[in-house]
Write a structure and sequence with these properties.
Layout lengths: L5 H5 L2 E4 L2 E4 L4 E2 L10 E6 L6 E10 L5 E8 L6 E7 L7 E8 L2 H4 L2 E4 L3 E5 L4 E3 L7 E4 H13 L2 H7 L1 H18 L5 E7 L5 E2 L11 E6 L3 H6 L5 H5 L25 H5 L3 E6 L6 E10 L5 E8 L6 E7 L7 E8 L2 H4 L2 E4 L4 E4 L4 E3 L1 H4 L2 E4 H14 L10 H18 L5 E7 L5 E2 L12 E6 L3 H6 L14
Parallel strand pairs: 3-5
Antiparallel strand pairs: 1-2, 4-5, 5-6, 6-7, 8-13, 8-15, 9-12, 9-14, 10-11, 10-13, 16-17, 17-18, 18-19, 20-25, 20-27, 21-24, 21-26, 22-23, 22-25
Keywords: Metal-binding, Repeat, Zinc, Zinc-finger
Protein name: Zinc finger protein ZPR1
InterPro entries: Znf_ZPR1, ZPR1, ZPR1_A/B_dom, ZPR1_jr_dom, ZPR1_Znf1/2
Length: 471
């Protein structure tokens, strides 16, 4: 078989109704998709240094996003190597996940870790720095097993040449083995500056009480490590090596009066982006508008011509409010489903009657109705890659089916429930059914003071509002 480049994979077409249709670059794993063959590249074997074959497959798998599967095999010495590499976009923030491992179920939790993930177990003083291991999909126990295998490597030779170090390593391996026996609970910490790591929630869609996830803002050094540079970084670079840099900025300043604020309200702006599903180039439309009795918002909509994916998102046009806001909406009749809802990207959702909680990043920002929010939550639970529908765990699939049945009862108004929207930034809105701005008897609005942790996540604790020009 002749080798093909990755670029050739992205230009594959399928014949639909007599016409040739471009296929997505990253496709779901499908047994019926015979065209999803791997790309073969001749490469050197790291064992015998003769020529072997590396196979690349661009795909999407559950519990992760877009990835590149890589498999190497040498026909001369038989050496094999398999690994994955994340091909998804870097998230806006890094993520720190702390899991308290107490039971065998916790040991069997699936874990996704990228190349930029630092792994820590404080109880045994274990730390695996970022970029020392390739990204993988494994389990909590698998992370421990891999650490044990790495420590056991060359241990026999070490016992002869450095006996004291070998004894210390054997003692440390015993401590790691004890973790697998769960003699005591321990904490697994994943800190990923790319934001592409994840730990399975076995109780999904209920809240994970043993796992805490915190998103954090990356430092300048961490952005540079990921290859992210802003305008200031580029201007501070060596101008002699980039003499035309100042003339080639993507963003150019406008002269005063060229573009007024009123012009922006009546204009639909377009910019190039990538499809969130198949990563094909497409355009996003953006418009600034005003929601009555609320504030200005930015509405963005994307349609992909390749896979047909349609997305819409709403971002607040103003700043963060002085207080957070929590809305409690009782869903009992048809009118309750028709309320207009603006959910910002910092707003989390909860339905106490179903013990269901959705984080702020799950659905993003959107302007819809109560029914639209419920349907979006239901569709994500049914179709999102964060749930293994092909899992061999029948109990997990049965629990999900029962939950979706209860969820459908809420949407069909057979069961009364409460939808809680909690936005620490105060940029969400729920319509009142009264003609005035006052809440009706089925809508409760509470404004509250943010906690230190909420201000930290919003980046408010380090803001300097006075004398900010002074270092």
């Amino acid at each position: 078989m002749s080798s093909r480049t990755i670029e050739s994979v992205s230009t594959e077409h399928e014949v639909v109704g007599g016409t040739r249709k471009k296929k997505p670059l990253f496709r779901d794993i499908d047994a019926d998709d015979t065209a999803a063959e791997a790309t073969e590249i001749e490469s050197a074997c790291m064992s015998c240094f003769r020529s072997g074959v590396t196979r690349l497959l661009l795909t999407k798998i559950p519990f992760f996003k877009e990835i590149v599967l890589m498999s190497f095999k040498c026909g001369h010495c038989g050496f094999e190597n398999n690994e994955i590499q994340s091909a998804s976009e870097i998230q806006k923030k890094g993520v720190r996940i702390a899991l308290n491992v107490q039971t065998r179920t916790d040991l069997n939790r699936r874990v996704v870790r990228s190349d930029y993930t630092c792994v820590q177990i404080p109880e045994v003083e274990l730390e695996i720095p970022a970029q020392t291991q390739k990204g993988e999909i494994t389990t909590v126990e698998g992370i421990i097993d891999r650490a044990i295998r790495g420590l056991n490597q060359d241990q026999e030779k070490r016992k002869i040449e450095h006996s004291d170090a070998a004894v210390a390593i054997d003692e440390f391996i015993e401590r790691l083995e004890a973790l697998k026996e769960l003699k005591t609970s321990f904490t697994l910490i994943l800190e990923d500056i790319s934001g592409n790591s994840f730990i399975e929630n076995p109780d999904a869609p209920s809240a994970d009480r043993n796992c805490k996830t915190i998103q954090f803002t990356r430092s300048i050094e961490e952005n540079h490590l990921l290859g992210l540079y802003d305008k200031k970084d580029m201007l501070d670079a060596d101008v002699e090596n980039m003499p035309k840099l100042k003339d080639n900025h993507l963003l150019k300043p406008l002269n005063e009066g060229d573009w007024t604020y009123e012009d922006l309200h009546g204009e639909v702006l377009q910019f190039q982006t990538l499809c969130p599903e198949c990563r094909s180039p497409c355009e996003t439309n953006m418009k600034l508008t005003i929601i009555p009795h609320f504030k200005e918002v930015v509405i963005m909509a994307t349609v992909c011509d390749v896979c047909g994916c349609k997305t819409n998102e709403v971002k607040s046009g103003g700043g963060i409010e002085e207080k957070g806001v929590r809305f409690e909406v009782t869903i009992a009749r048809k009118e309750d489903l028709t309320r207009d809802v603006l959910k910002s990207e910092t707003c989390s959702l909860r339905i106490p009657e179903l013990d269901c909680e959705v984080g702020p990043s799950a659905l993003g920002g959107r302007f819809t109705t109560v029914e639209g929010i419920l349907l979006a939550m239901k569709n994500q639970l049914e179709n999102d890659d964060l749930i293994f529908h092909d899992s061999s765990d029948e109990a997990t699939k049965m629990r999900l089916r029962k939950f979706l049945k209860r969820f459908n009862n809420v949407i069909s108004l057979e069961t009364e429930a409460t939808l809680i929207l909690d936005d620490p930034a105060g940029n969400s809105f729920v319509q009142s059914l009264l003609d005035t701005d006052e809440p009706d008897n089925k809508l409760k609005i509470v404004k509250y003071e943010r906690s230190y942790e909420q201000n930290e996540e919003l980046g408010l604790n380090d803001i300097k509002t006075e004398n900010y020009e002074t270092p």
